[in-house]
Every structure is written in structure tokens, then in C-alpha cells.
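Standup notes, structure subgroup. Blocker cleared on the adenosine-5'-diphosphate input:
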Amino acid sequence: MADRIVELQGLYARLGNGARGAVFECMINGQPAALKVYFEETFFHKERLAYEKICHNNLDGEIAPRYIGQVHLTRNDHHIIWSDIPRFQANPHIYSFDIYPHHTAIAMELLTGVTLYQASMRNIGDEQIKMITAELSTRLVTLHDVVGICHRDLSWNNAMIDKSFNLLSDTEVIPGQVRIVDFSEALFSSACSKKHFLDRCLNEMTNLGALVQLVADARPYYGEHEGQKLLFGVMEEEEEKKKEKNFKSAGDTDDKIDSDDEVEDNDEEVGDEETEDDDDLNRPAEHSYMSDDEMY
Ligand SMILES: Nc1ncnc2c1ncn2[C@@H]1O[C@H](COP(=O)(O)OP(=O)(O)O)[C@@H](O)[C@H]1O
Ligand SMILES: [Mg+2]
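Run returned:
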């Protein structure tokens, strides 16, 4: 295993901050890369093992950032010693290395694009959500069945959508456009009972359903969305009702009333409104937010 010196050309922007590490953009040997520095070494070892296992299996589509080799950083900030490890697939792209005695880090391919959270803030379309869901579920099943890993920390911060994927037009997802990152919570099938592993995998697939619903609901500017239309409609109606009531009560009351009476009147009105609202709630909904068929 030959060691050679590679150049780490400084750290640039912080790409993200999580519970277990901070991820920076950097240049390694003139190539853009992402560097994840871990707060605890155990997470580093777990994530490195997960990436190694992923690379051992020659997978069609990519799941995680691609893998290249193992790198040990010396005390000198600008030089890291890179030990080649066998390459398992044609396009691996991860470096892993230790920084200072108390810090470890993994250098990996820089993913350009957005997290699933950022995608939902950018008004992603329904069709795109469906395609990303299908892609994520295929990748998770591959992780579970082929690689023997349960990710256990699936969230909208740990799924990355490539910038080549159009968030608003119905083009198919191609493998590699949806990636899963952050394997620091991974469970390995080799390290627990079969039943425990299968239970965790089942939980993960259930979480995917909840995550997709969250992404769909979180879109703030989705004006065409039935749920949003319904919500704004109800709010407007309530505003109109309030205005009408205020107008009527102002017209009915000729005598001056003291402020205490006014408060009591208002309380009664609020009480009346609540019962009307309750009736509204008991009526069948005319629009459903998103039918099950639409979602899956
Ligand atoms: N390879 C990468 N390229 C670009 N951004 C990344 C990459 N890996 C992680 N990130 C960003 O950094 C954030 C934190 O990384 P993550 O691995 O999830 O750390 P943590 O374990 O602390 O949650 C992610 O949500 C994502 O936005
Ligand atoms: Mg994370």
C-alpha cells in the first residue's frame, strides 16, 4: 500500500452542519471535494465502514458520494498522506483521513445541488417528489438487501438532489441524481440479529413515507396546490365573516357601552364562531390535501 503526498488546498465554505460533523468545501490535488470533519471518532469509523461496504458491491446506481481512497492528514495543514486502498468500482470517489490527533475526517466527492429540504423550499413539483421517492426507495432497498446496511438517519438533510435534476419539469431521475449521505448512524446486518436488522429496515421504509409527506407539505410557495388553496380560501372566508360581524354590531349598538361589556360581547361572539367552526369540521372535506394514489 503506497503512501504519497497530496495537496489539501485550504477549506472554503461550510456546506453543512450536522449533529455529528461539519462539512466543508475544499480542493484536494486541484479537484473540488467535500470534507466532513467529525466531532467523535466512532462516527467516522462507522461512516467509513459503510462507504467501504457500499464500494465492495458493484452497484448499478450510486447511493452515496463516490469513493477513492484513504487519506491520513499529518499535523501539517497543507499536506496529507494518501494511502491507496483497492478500488472496488469504476467511479469511486471518497477519501478518508485523520486531521489532528483528536479529529478525523472523510473527504468525498463534492455533491453539487440541493438537499431534499432545500428542494422543498424551492417549490418542487408533485411529479418530481414521486420520482425522488421511487429513487430513494430503490436505493434504500439496495442498501438493505445487497449491501446489508440500514441507514437509520434518513432525513431531508441527508438526501441530496443533483443540480442536473430539474425540480419543476417531468424528466426522469437518472441514477446518481439522488444520493444518500451521512452513514454515521448506520446499522450493519453483520453486527446484529437478522430480526433486529429487518425491523430497522422496515422502520426506515416507513420513515420514507413520512419524509415524503413532509416534503410535500413544507412547500411554502406552492400556489397551485389544492391544500394551500383550501387553506387560503378558509382564511379569507373567516376574515370576511369577521368584518361583517364587526360592521353589524357597530350598526346595532346606538348607545355607548363601557369597555367591560365590550369584552363580554366579544367573548360571546368568539364562542359562537367556535361552534360554527366545529360544524364546518364535521362536514366532509371537498378537497383532499393529496390522495394516497397521487402520492405513491
Ligand atoms: N459530499 C457532499 N457534498 C456536498 N454537501 C454535502 C456533502 N455531504 C454532506 N453535505 C452537506 O452537509 C450537511 C451535513 O452533512 P452530514 O454528513 O449529514 O453531517 P452530520 O452527520 O453532522 O449530519 C448535509 O446536510 C449536506 O447539506
Ligand atoms: Mg446529517
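Discussed briefly. The pocket of adenosine-5'-diphosphate (ligand 1) is lined by residues 15-16, 18-21, 23, 34, 36, 65, 108-111, 115, 157-158, 181-182, 184 (CB under 6 Å).
Next: hand off to the docking folks.
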